[in-house]
Amino acid sequence: MPGRGSVSPEKIAQVDELARAVLARPMTALVGLRGVPAGALQSMRRELRSRDRPIRVAPNSAIRHALEKAAEERPALRPLLDQVVDQTAILAAEGNPFSLYQEFLKTRSPTPARGGEIAPKDIFVPAGTTNFKPGPIVGELQHAGLPAAIEKGKVILKKDTTIVRAGEVISREVATMLTRLEIFPLEVGLSLRAVVEGPTFYPPEVLAVDLDAQRADLARAARSALGLALEVGYATPATTPLLLARAHRRALGLALAAGYVTKETIEPLFAKAMREAAAVGRLTGH
């Protein structure tokens, strides 16, 4: 680390401890803390620590130096250096990066805008009846860009409106009105900036996978493949028991239809003969 001689022993120890923690686990992640209230952050850290997902909060300079030091042994960590921006924490753990991403999604919750923030996505206000009483609020809604009117003594929004586009600044006036409409366009929580697991670097856009949808797709594909294999009689460890069971049912049906006597067909053939004899007896009066 450059200038190590002029750095306090405490900072050197912090960097060394972070580097050791990173090298001790196969998965390293950088975590964004921007906008998370201190109390909520402490609660999230406790919850993650209970699942063996401890996040370490440190100055960005210490995190960079720790990653540089650890990267001497594990070069795959170097891409993480570009992600050490803004308010950052570091996590070293066992596990799957995709599962980790889903865990971090669960820490996020909607929060109102205050004005001045960048909209992360289009902010949509649906048409319909509001809870506002008729009065000056109609003009305030219209001034904010919402098509408000009074109908049957109620304040309504006449049509669906995208009031702020993704990437645009949310004005204070619009933010106030969204809060009054109970529309919370922002999210607060921990964000997973990037993960290195073993030799592989995972940016967040790669990790944003709907695992439930993927599992459903795989299950559907497996059922379709099994049905096709059974249809064409393709033998595999999965299809062989089913193919044998189907062949047995068909062979038994054919033997019964032909009156072929075996240990399995003797009883149903005898029962069939008794039923037919009874039917003939009824027809002949005997």
Describe the structure.
This protein has 286 residues and is α+β, with helices and mostly antiparallel strands. It has 3 domains: 4-108 and 189-209, Alpha-Beta Plaits (2-Layer Sandwich); 123-187, Molybdopterin biosynthesis moea protein, domain 2, CATH 3.90.105; 214-284, no CATH class. The chain has 10 helices and 12 strands. The protein has helices at residues 9-24, 38-50, 60-71, 97-105, 137-143, 172-180, 204-207, 211-232, 240-258, 266-284; strands spanning 27-32, 55-57, 88-93, 109-111, 123-125, 128-129, 148-151, 154-157, 161-164, 186-188, 191-197, 200-202. The strands form 4 sheets. Strands 2-3-1-11-12 form a 5-stranded antiparallel sheet, with helices on both faces. Strands 6-8-7 form a 3-stranded antiparallel sheet, with helices on one face. Strand 7 and strand 8 form a beta hairpin. Helix 1 (9-24) packs across helix 3 (60-71). It is flat and about 110 Å long. The relative contact order is 0.12. The model has no long low-confidence stretch (mean pLDDT 88).
List keywords for this structure.
Molybdopterin biosynthesis moea protein, domain 2, 286 residues, 45% helix, flat, 3-stranded antiparallel β-sheet, alpha+beta, single chain, Alpha-Beta Plaits, 3 domains, 5-stranded antiparallel β-sheet
CATH H-tier superfamily of the largest domain: Ribosomal protein L10, N-terminal RNA-binding domain
Largest sheet: 5 strands, antiparallel
Q: What is the CA–CA distance across the termini?
A: 109 Å
Strand order of the largest sheet: 2-3-1-11-12
Return residue spans where pLDDT drops below 50 for at least 5 consecutive residues: none
Share of residues in helices = 40-55%
Counting structural domains, the number is 3
**Named CATH architecture of the largest domain:** 2-Layer Sandwich
Which structural category fits the helices and strands?
alpha+beta
**Kindly state the mean pLDDT as a whole number?**
88
